[in-house]
């Protein structure tokens, strides 16, 4: 794996009516690039998901259906949020002990994943998700000691 270019953060709106950004942060998903893009959880607040549902630690998005990659990542790395969906247990069984889902390889995508994604959309739309694009600070900024 190469490096991260962006992060998605799941949490709460901080301060009065969310004016203070995100607080707490429950999950951070990194978007990395190399020969192709991948998404991976880089931080999960302990206690929030103390019972792991599966072992997934990365997904590779389908470049032809990239709009699904964000919700797919949240289903993969915050599965507890979607337990009420009717297709959830089917997907748990289909994921099994997999460590990764490559959405480019249609044969390896859990068969019920697309149906779970549709059921998960109303839940996902209510979640507070922030996006942080990374760029290096230019050297003109002072060095702090």
Topology, element by element:
Blueprint (H helix, E strand, L loop, with lengths): L2 E11 L8 E12 L4 E7 L13 E3 L8 H9 L10 H8 L4 E3 L10 H14 L1 E6 L12
Parallel strand pairs: 4-5
Antiparallel strand pairs: 1-2, 1-6, 2-3
Radius of gyration: 17 Å
Average pLDDT, all residues:
89
Unreliable spans are none
Please report which band the strand proportion falls in: under 5%, 5-15%, 15-25%, 25-35%, 35-45% or over 45%: 25-35%
Strand order of the largest sheet: 3-2-1-6
Shape: globular
The number of helical elements comes to: 3
Largest sheet: 4 strands, antiparallel
**Count of distinct strands:** 6
Helix content: 10-25%
End-to-end separation: 32 Å
Structural category is: alpha+beta
Series of H and E elements: EEEEHHEHE
Describe this structure in words.
The protein is of the alpha+beta class. Helix content is 21%, strand content 29%. The chain contains 3 helices and 6 strands, in the order ββββααβαβ. The strands form 2 sheets. Strands 3-2-1-6 form a 4-stranded antiparallel β-sheet, with helices on one face. A two-stranded parallel sheet has the order 4-5. The two termini are 32 Å apart.
């Amino acid at each position: 794996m190469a490096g991260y270019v962006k992060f998605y953060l799941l949490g709460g709106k901080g301060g009065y009516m969310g004016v203070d950004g995100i607080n707490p942060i429950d999950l951070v998903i990194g978007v990395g690039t190399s020969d192709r893009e991948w998404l991976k959880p880089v931080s999960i607040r302990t206690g929030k998901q103390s019972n792991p549902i599966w072992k997934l630690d990365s997904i590779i998005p389908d470049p032809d259906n990239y709009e699904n990659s964000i919700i797919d990542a949240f289903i993969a790395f915050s599965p507890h949020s979607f337990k009420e969906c009717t297709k959830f247990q089917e997907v748990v069984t289909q994921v099994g002990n997999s460590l990764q889902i490559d959405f480019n390889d249609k044969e390896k995508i859990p068969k019920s994943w697309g149906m779970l994604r549709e059921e998960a959309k109303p839940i996902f739309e209510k979640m507070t998700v922030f996006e942080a694009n990374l760029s290096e600070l230019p050297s003109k900024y002072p060095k702090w000691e």
